[in-house]
Amino acid sequence: MASVASIYARAFADMVLDQHLDAGRAIGGLRRISSLLGESAELRRVWENPAVAAEQKRRLLDAIVRREGIEKPVRNLVAVLIDHRRILFLERIVVQLEKELDARLGLAEAHITSARDLGDAERRALEAQIEKVTGKKVRARFGLDASLLGGAVVRVGSTIYDGSVKGQLEKIREAISS
């Protein structure tokens, strides 16, 4: 049985693609509302409280949407979640929506960890190489780990490509010990 988050994520992904909306902007708006919800216990109490009138909840949502510049389809999804008492699933819906849209658009998310901060040209070259290997368009997230000594470690899904000096030294150590 599909989870609540999966059902809403698939339906919203259908709408984003059918209406040719900017997927990044839609996800960004949902992330912003999810972040506000996570930061504010008062907001959570209002939106989750059945004693608060639905109209009041939507007015509060509309004020947030105006202030943050969030698109109407995102507002409508959040309003549905509030009305159906599913707002507590928002964070999981956002995560599932990202996965759903990535799969439909042929995107792969790559987590790249390097020993030093990479320049723009190095980042683009690394992304291009990952795209060539995976056959998918790549959205990369970069991080630092000085313990790698040099090089980089790339994780795409469950596959790890270790081009770090630390990884190479470990391989040599394993070869010597065996």
Description:
- The chain is an alpha+beta fold and 178 residues long.
- It folds into two domains: 4-103, Orthogonal Bundle (Peroxidase, domain 1), CATH 1.10.520; 107-177, no CATH class.
- It is 62% helix and 14% strand.
- It is built from eight helices and four strands.
- The protein has helices at 4-18, 23-39, 41-48, 54-68, 72-83, 90-105, 120-134, 165-177; strands spanning 107-114, 137-144, 152-156, 159-162.
- The chain has a four-stranded mixed beta sheet with strand order 2-1-3-4.
- Helix 2 packs across helix 5 (72-83).
- The longest helix is centred in the N-terminal third of the chain and has 17 residues, at 23-39.
- The chain starts with a helix and ends with a helix.
Specify Rg, calculated over alpha carbons: 21 Å
Instruction: Return residue spans where pLDDT drops below 50 for at least 5 consecutive residues.
Output: none
Strand order of the largest sheet: 2-1-3-4
What kind of sheet is the major sheet? 4 strands, mixed
The amount of beta strand, in percent, is 5-15%
Q: Separation of termini?
A: 47 Å
What are the key terms here?
2 domains; alpha+beta; Peroxidase, domain 1; elongated; 178 residues
Strands, helices and their partners?
Layout: H1 4-18, H2 23-39, H3 41-48, H4 54-68, H5 72-83, H6 90-105, E1 107-114, H7 120-134, E2 137-144, E3 152-156, E4 159-162, H8 165-177
Parallel strand pairs: 1-2
Antiparallel strand pairs: 1-3, 3-4
Helix pairs in contact: 1-6, 2-5, 2-6, 4-5
Short account of what is shown:
This protein is of the alpha+beta class and 178 residues long. It is built from eight helices and four strands. The protein folds into two domains: 4-103, Peroxidase, domain 1 (Orthogonal Bundle); 107-177, no CATH class.
